[in-house]
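Aim 2 progress update. The chain analyzed this quarter is reproduced below.
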Amino acid sequence: MEHLSEYPVLVAHSELSDGSAVGRAVSELASALAEEDLTVEFACTAADVEFAVSRDVGIGAALLDPELFGDEAADSAAVAYLGVFEEGDNRFRGFESEMRGIFPRAGADGRLRYFTYVVPQAVVGGA
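Predicted C-alpha cells:
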C-alpha cells in the first residue's frame, strides 16, 4: 500500500464534526485510514467537496455522504470528477483508468459509462 499514500482519500460527511454517532463512526473510519499511512482530507459541505476535487485531481478515493449534495447530486463536482475519467477513457481506448468501486459498462453506442454502488443512509445506521 506504499504507493497509495501518495493519493489522498477524501472523507465527506455532513455530521463529521458534530459529535453524533454517525460523525464519530466516520471519524473512526478516517482514523483507521490514517493509521494505514493514507493521507485523509475532510469535507463537511458540498462546497468543501467541490473545492477539494477541483484543487486536487490526485484524489485516490472518496467516501461521500450523498445527502451533502441533495437534489443537485447529478451536478456535483464529485460526479464531474468521475465524468473526466469517463470522457478520457472513451477518447483513449486501451488506456482506461482503474478505479475500485467504479464499474464501466458499454452502452448501445459503444461509449463507456461509469456506474457505482450507493449505500442508503438507513443501511449504515443513519436516520
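The chain is about 30% helix and 15% strand. The CA atoms of residues 2 and 67 lie 32 Å apart. These observations will guide the mutagenesis experiments scheduled for the next reporting period.
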